[in-house]
Amino acid sequence: MFTSSPHDSVLASYGWDGSWEQLASTSDASGVPGRVARVDRGRVDVLTADGRVHASSRGHCAVGDWVLVADGAVAAVLPRRTTLARAATSGRSEAQVLAANVDTVLVTVPAESAARTGRVERLVALAWESGATPVLVVTKIDRTDDLAGVLSELALSAPGVEVVGVSAVTGEGVEDVAAAARGTTVLVGPSGAGKSTLANALLGADVLAVGAVRAVDGKGRHTTVHRELLPLPGGGVLVDTPGLRAVGIRDAAEGIERAFADVVDLADGCRFSDCAHEHEPGCAVRAAVHDDELPERRFEAYRKLRREDEWAAARTDARLASERRARWKQVTKDQRARYRARGR
Ligand SMILES: Nc1nc2c(ncn2[C@@H]2O[C@H](COP(=O)(O)OP(=O)(O)OP(=O)(O)O)[C@@H](O)[C@H]2O)c(=O)[nH]1
Ligand SMILES: [Zn+2]
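Above: query sequence and zinc ion SMILES. Below: predicted holo structure tokens.
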């Protein structure tokens, strides 16, 4: 159950819809619905119809989660539609949820470095894996004379993915990106790709003007412009949260298969169904590379991501195994203690 509010349009601007309402009304918990805009160790900021509230949270909330808040705490997290996660860097092997309920991942790549597509493939795989739809956004198209060439090169790196070119300088393509940014959208991509510039272009003059007006009135009113969850003028929400930039892959076998659908298709022709495309005879993938049907670079990118994914999975397995061993050690110790106690 949830307490409904008269300002449903406020919630709608953050992505609230009939099916969230349905989930909220059938939840065991009751509370005020809202969307998590910020997570900070056991505390979250939630955007509700009545404004921003702080709440404590015991569970694992991520930016983008829909929650019910009661008595200053998160009473329930509504089931996620999608989960954008990355492998944790150094030490911990737990995946880190970057954002929840993302519908569109705009993968940015500057036109001038469009030839280095390895990062693009990684991010596209990550997006597919999350359940969201990736869109390739080629930024700074004012800096290339061969836009058609860049776009077709990239299209090869991302079969089945919409590719849009944009220049925040000339304004060309901004509307195309806005149209592609369906539902809840995040911008990912390398530093300097133009994400912030594009975010501002997407958010439009209205939002910027609001920020400016608020900055001027600054008398006692809280005028902080929060940059985490921003309603887009044409509908939808932009999630702009730090930490979405350097992305490692993990548990993303499906996403990788989808991002490399062309390689997977070729692999159907390998003699062995478990062909690793290394030295096996009758390998259709290596044959395609040899015949220039599959760019060697793309084949290498595929293998690299697969290895990385398997390595992360193996690391998790190792951690789980050692946890299991630690648990069993304890059980055995307890058992011995019990034997001794009985023997006495
Ligand atoms: N020529 C040109 N320059 C652009 C365009 N978009 C952004 N830039 C410039 O590229 C630089 C980086 O842009 P940002 O928007 O800060 O890039 P970012 O991806 O947000 O970078 P990080 O915050 O480091 O991740 C800035 O100097 C921008 O002015 C564009 O469409 N054309
Ligand atoms: Zn093979």
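The pocket of zinc ion (ligand 2) is lined by residues 267, 270, 275, 277, 280, 283-285 (CB under 6 Å).
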